[in-house]
User: What shape does this take?
Amino acid sequence: MNYTIFPGKPKCFCGVFGIYGSPTASLETYYGLHALQHRGQEACGIVTRDLNGNGKSFFQIHKGEGLVTEVFAKSKVFKNLLTGSSAIGHNRYSTTGSSQSRKNIQPFLVNYRLGNLAVGHNGNLTNARELREELVNEGAIFQTTSDTEVILHLIARSRLDDQVEQIKEAIQRIEGAYSLVLLTDDKLIAARDPHGFRPLAIGKLNGAYLIASESCAFDIISAEFIREVEPGEIVVIDDDVIRTGSVKSFRIYDNTLPKNHCIFEFIYFSRPDSFIFGHNVDKMRRRLGKILARNHPVYSKNDEKIIVISVPDSSNTTALGYQTELEKLGVNCKLEIGLIRSHYIGRTFIQPGQSNREIGVRIKFNTVKGVLEGRTVVIVDDSIVRGTTSKQLVKLIREANPESIHLRISSSPITHPCYYGMDFPSKEELIAHKHNADIDSIKNYLDVDSLEYLTNDEMLEAVSEAGKDNFCDACFSGNYPTEIDLNFKKEIYEN
Ligand code: SF4
Assistant: This one.
């Protein structure tokens, strides 16, 4: 099934949500997951905790393949099954673990020595393979192929007698990228890796506390954003917190460790209406567009008006930043809607002589011919991965007979894969790798009149308000902030 993500864009991560202290916890989780749908469209699930007549807690779960609206299409799921005042939810796009396996759909739920435990994870554990081997040798039986299950086993096998202590102990063993929500019989717990690869935020709604991958999940239910979970922090919400209004916070990693926020969250992945890594995504995306215009402008012949268009929706804000700055540079230009995006995508059937990519692009986009015909057109896009989709998009725009097409990319060329949760193809499939990062050669392949990317330094300059040194840019630079095991590299791209 082809969902709302633009074909040819990296697929990413997952979205997590948690709530403690609301009588309608599962409904709020549903809306939260809906707002986080862009973070994962293959599958989703919700786990709730309720109390029986004797005050004993019990957990319920509903999960399945598809979008949030498909998996939770029936209202009776909320009324009859997902009852209780706390819940966690998860949107999935598979990173590790076979995407085909229903068993890999999160949240995962177990019952062990200290009670019930559910977990939802966004990110990738880079040492999951070694830990898994170790656990299997000690007798652990794995139900899934997901790295997240390792966390559950580490907690369940701990000899400590306090769940928060067990979670702290488990977290000290895992490496890589993780933004976690965990639900126990009496607590909602959130944890973020010390690098802070993925965002994670805390919110409040009518006395209940919430955790979400992005703050846009709070807006949909009119909840208040409180703050982000800090890198290396574990946050615990329980009845005491509801009473006192003071969130419990633990640190197992020093706050002064270098941060490595994923720069791609600002470039493409997070929603522009979210607040992550201490900043508004919208503002950062506009800045990326602004720096792109300043350093890679397009000038027209005879001062005729240049038409700037975005590839909707992820590049809309960047294109706005680009056009505004281009105008400030004295270029006669206008931001136009040159591509119309269909949000209703179903299965595609390939016709003879047509490639999967071609129909994928045509079913998703159409051009507004009157806007493009005879004009100098600047397409602003956030990234190019394989290049096959961009090529199809350029072909589509050419059919509208523009005078010329200039492609401007608000990131630098992607030359390396991501091991922290973003699903890029293997290095060999990346267009920048294939063409040895030779921009002229990529330009010829895409059949555009000019092509320019932001350089790595320009990209970091655009996000510098959040601290130039606080970002992971490994897929652009090859400088991975953590050690990557060779077997893990293989595993990621063989799954
Ligand atoms: Fe983000 Fe790229 Fe780093 Fe992965 S490698 S975390 S996509 S910047």
Residues 268 and 314 are 6 Å apart (CA to CA). The first strand starts at residue 11 and ends at 12. Residues 14-257 form a domain with the Glutamine Phosphoribosylpyrophosphate, subunit 1, domain 1 fold (CATH 3.60.20.10). Residues 1-7 have pLDDT under 50 and may be disordered.
